[in-house]
Structure formats: structure tokens, C-alpha cells
Amino acid sequence: MDVLASITADVVACRACPRLVAWREQVAAEKRAAFRADEYWGRPVPGFGDPRAALLVVGLAPAAHGGNRTGRVFTGDRSGDWLYRALWRAGFANQPTSVAPGDGLVLSGAYVSAAVRCAPPANRPTPDERDRCLPYLARELAALDRVRVIVALGRFAHDAFCGLLALRPRPPFGHGSEHVLVDGRHLLGSFHPSQQNTFTGKLTEPAFDAVFTRARELVAPVPDWGGRGQAQSQ
Asked: How many Cβ atoms sit within 10 Å of the Cβ of residue 40?
């Protein structure tokens, strides 16, 4: 088993946070009416993408009826729609949609993860839940040894990542913020593509695209999709 596959197996089997376990399983059992016919994943959601990624995207946590339903991070909800369209436009994805595992989506040069792997009630993990989950992100970051750019989606993900690396002083978060870490990697900030931000116009697609255009500038040329990219973890 390769390193990322081992991390995925450990993530999926995790039951470390009783509150999150109870919530994710309750949501999976009760379901939303629009997805009544779906079989919900109802487990922690692992990272997804190219094991040779130069870009790591870090979000907050799976959505109750998004990743918690489909089993793929940022998949099956409107936040995911925004993210994968932006990755596609920047040349990191072969298609602009992410519906479910097996839908043909391939990422090239990018890997998508989250600070917390279970859907939290009210989309608010506690500090203890965050801290219990961050070692998975640390292991992914170590395994993804080609990563040169990290895009943090939202203040929670930004602060979690800064805490993971024990950055002092902590770089300030803002949309379009950019900080060069001591090892030469770049940390970029973006408002989270939540409905609260996108419906109100706090985050627009041009502003979101600008972050991933900058990430593309910092990493590598747009891939030749004839090769379909590297094998994906999900």
C-alpha cells in the first residue's frame, strides 16, 4: 500500500471525535429529501487528487450533504462546484464538474484536502476536533513532497495550516493574501466558496479565479490532458 493510500485508509476508519461520528452518521441515515435515493458515505472524507501535486488546496470540512454524501472532498455541493470549476479554468482539472467518485474527474498537479475530515454540526468543528484531525493533513503534506503552493480556503483552514506548521508570527489571512514560507513554499489565502460568500458577492468567480491563476504561475505549465494525469487516490 502506498503512503497516500495508507493515509486514506486511516482517515476513513477514524472514530476519534464522538460528536462528529454521531452527526455524520445521523445525517447519512436521515438524508436530505433531494438525495433520498442516494446511499450516503457517512464516514470521514479523505483527500483527493494527484500524488505528484505541486498545489495543495485545504478546505474546512466536508459538507453534510456534499462530501459526507458522496465520499469525495468538495463534491456534491455548490462550494465544490465553484472549486472544481476554478481548478479546471486554471488547468488543474480535466473537467469543471465533480459529482461523485467515478465521474471521470482527474486532477493534474493538484490535491484537495481539508483541516477536518468529518462533517461538523453547523459547519463548526471545535478546536479539539480540529487538533485531533490535523495529523492527517500533516501526513498528507509530508507524502506530497512536490507541493510548492498551498491555497487555504477560508480563515479556519488558513489558521489550521499555520498552526500545523507552527508559524510565528502567524501570517494574516485575506483574500489574495500571499506569504512565502521559510522553505520557499507559498501560502495563498482565499475566501471560502461557501454559499454565504458567493450568494452575497463577497466572493466572485473572477476573484476566486485570480487565486488559482496565481497558483498556476507559481507551479507549472498547464498539463497536456492527452495523458489524463496521474492516478487519483479516489
From this structure: 20
Do 72 and 45 meet the contact criterion of CB atoms below 8 Å apart? yes
Distance CA 93, CA 215 (A): 14
Note the pLDDT tens digit of each residue in 70-88. 999 999 999 999 999 999 9
Q: Domain ranges in the chain? A: 3-220
Rg (CA), the chain: 16
CATH hierarchy code of domain 3-220: 3.40.470.10
Identify the DSSP state of 194: -
Cβ-in-10-Å burial (0-12, 13-18, 19+) of 62 comes to buried
Q: Is the pLDDT of residue 111 over 80?
A: yes
The neighbour count for residue 32, using CB atoms within 10 Å, is: 12
Distances from the Cα of 136 to the Cαs of 4, 6, 89, 207, in angstroms? Answer: 10, 11, 29, 30
How far apart are the C-alpha atoms of 202 and 207, rounded to whole Å?
9
Long-range Cβ contact pairs of 142-147 (< 8 A, separation 24 or more): 143/3, 143/4, 143/7, 143/51, 144/4, 144/51, 144/53, 144/56, 144/111, 146/52, 146/53, 146/54, 147/53, 147/54, 147/55, 147/56, 147/111, 147/185
Q: Cell 497516500 identifies what position? A: 4
Cis, bond preceding 223 (omega within 30 deg of 0): no
